[in-house]
Amino acid sequence: MNTMTVTKSVVMITEEASFRIKEMMEHNEEQDAFLRISVNGGGCSGLSYGMTFDQNSQENDVLDEQFGIAIIVDKEDAAILEGTKVDYKQSLMGGGFTIDNPNAIASCGCGTSFKAAARPAEEQPCE
Fold this sequence. Notes:
The protein is α/β, with parallel strands linked by helices.
């Protein structure tokens, strides 16, 4: 892990999401990794979210720590993700992460992509 200064929270994760993330980190033997939250091009609305484990941070990353999880976000993505809440919901149909982004101006019907005024993106067909 690179040494970085912790900054203000860009993305907030709930305690429930943190439990699931820690389980996944342990299962994948990534306990010392960063959780990288990103915005990628793609999807029928043009942008999609990414959540991965990353062993390295970059100079342009914003670092935060919540519930013992080191979270990194690229500075370019920070404006689009500012105020975003990541939760984990469990239901009779299964469970999954939910992302509530106040900067999304529209989202697709399939729920996997979104539009943001801060970053125009080319729409793709739904899969």
